[in-house]
Specification:
With 427 residues, this protein is an alpha+beta fold. It folds into three domains: 17-147 and 184-209, no CATH class; 226-300; 305-427, Heat Shock Protein 90 (2-Layer Sandwich), CATH 3.30.565. Helices cover 65% and strands 9% of the residues. A hairpin with a 2-residue loop joins strand 1 and strand 2 (165-166). Helix 13 runs antiparallel to helix 14.
């Protein structure tokens, strides 16, 4: 037997009533409208128990209502599954807030998350009665009028009036039955279609996440995606650094050593021009090694991976033209991405100090404070630095923002210049 899969179209029932009659989605919608009653009955019982006498309210009503509140989210999930199965409609999930911060804030967030599922449970009983009445009107009353002489032949021998309508075997009775047939063929499918659409809109409004919740979830997804992109970029930089260090750089070192050995083995009367070419090749290989080391250090220095920020920045300070004091207390170590961003921002800041600040000394202070890695770079130079004018810090500031960090530069005329950076490190 063929199984009808729910459609992904939000309204798969044809508008044409005759086509709708042979559409399986019309009958799935009918089943859906009838099954509204199961959860409506449960909620209705809870309300009736709570609305009883005082002792029932205390002994039975309140526990039942509390249980209803407790089961609001699971029941909502079950209802979303029912809508997906019968109407082919996917409804987003309402996520409960994580228990963090004060109890008051958490309770407010919980209330905002629960009021719509609870409103759905409260409003479902009367709506389900309307849906049931509509389904009975669509599929029960017209066939009953049409087939009345068949299943109740004695009716025509008595009073043939039913609800003010003459449904006997005379002309007026056949007119009523023909009208019921027209209603069954043309109006009933449209009635069920309209009820299912209204029911779907009701569920989408109260069972799914609010517009604010959708935007919040989307922002969270974008933040996660952005962080993954930043992490992947840093991973790729480390991979390129390793490949250059272990591959091209080692080959160049081997080439320079072989050229040196070849030069040392040349006889004294060897052609001077050829010896000069070999010496020049060895010199070029040495320069290429130096440039490649600087390149790999700019991508991701191995010392940063092996020994952390303190050792990496101390190595930078030792080569800096301006005396630099390094003070790093960053235990436990932050993630590799956070370390890399902090390192390169400090490098760019110290480069600017050497080029523009006319400073006599600079300092770098790094502290691990709760969930933040706080980095401060300062100098006693002339000041006046403005990242908006296109310094190298502009691109690094974008990398800082890529992990929800913050970078500020305070540089009045006459100095000092202080760069402060805060990076979330999740520890």
């Amino acid at each position: 037997m063929a199984v009808v899969a729910p459609a992904t179209d939000p309204d798969p029932i044809p508008v044409n009533p005759l086509r709708a009659l042979v559409s399986p989605y019309l009958w799935l919608a009918t089943v859906h409208l009838v099954t509204d009653l199961w959860i409506a009955a449960a909620v209705g019982i809870a309300v009736l128990l709570a609305a009883g006498s005082v002792h029932r309210l205390v002994l039975i009503g309140i526990p039942v209502l509390l249980l209803t509140v407790r089961l609001a989210i699971p029941l909502s999930a079950l209802e979303r599954g029912r809508y997906r199965l019968t109407l082919g409609m996917a409804i987003g999930t309402v996520r409960l807030p994580v228990r963090e911060g004060s109890w008051d804030q958490w309770a407010r967030n919980l209330g905002r998350a629960l009021w719509r599922p609870l409103a759905y449970l409260v409003l479902l009983p009367p709506l389900s009665l309307v849906n049931l009445a509509g389904v009975l009107l669509a599929w029960s009353v017209p066939p009953a009028l049409i087939l009345l002489p068949v299943y109740y032949p004695g009716f025509t021998e008595r009073d043939t009036s039913l609800a003010g309508l003459d449904v006997g075997n005379d002309v007026s009775g056949w007119v009523v039955r023909c009208a019921a047939l027209v209603f069954l063929l043309l109006v009933s499918p449209l009635l069920v279609r309209g009820l299912s659409r209204a029911d779907a809109a009701f569920a989408r409004a109260l069972l799914g996440p609010s517009r604010t919740g959708q935007l919040t979830e989307r922002v969270g997804q974008l933040e996660t995606s952005r962080r993954r992109v930043v992490d992947s970029v840093e991973d790729e930089r480390r991979r390129i650094e390793r490949d250059l260090h272990d591959g091209a750089q080692q080959r160049l070192v081997s080439l320079a050593m072989n050229l040196g050995r070849a030069t040392s083995r040349l006889p004294g009367d060897f052609d001077p021009a050829t010896r000069g070419l070999i010496d020049a090749a060895r010199h070029e290989a040495t320069l290429a090694i130096t440039e490649l080391r600087e390149l790999t250090r700019g991508l991701h220095p191995p010392v940063l991976t092996d020994r952390g920020l303190d050792a990496a920045l101390s190595s930078v300070a030792a080569r800096a033209p301006v005396p630099v004091r390094i003070d790093v207390q960053a235990e436990p170590r932050p993630s590799a991405t956070v370390e890399a961003i902090a390192y390169f921002v400090v490098i760019e800041a110290l480069t600017n100090v050497a080029k523009h600040a006319q400073a006599t000394h600079a300092w770098v202070v790094i502290r691990h404070e709760g969930h933040l890695l706080r980095v401060t770079v300062g100098d006693d130079g002339v000041g006046g630095a403005d990242p908006a004018r296109g310094s190298g810090l502009t691109g690094l500031a974008d990398r800082v923002c890529g992990i929800d960090g913050r970078l500020d530069v305070v540089s009045p005329r006459g100095g000092p210049t202080v760069l402060t950076m805060e990076l979330p490190c999740g520890s």
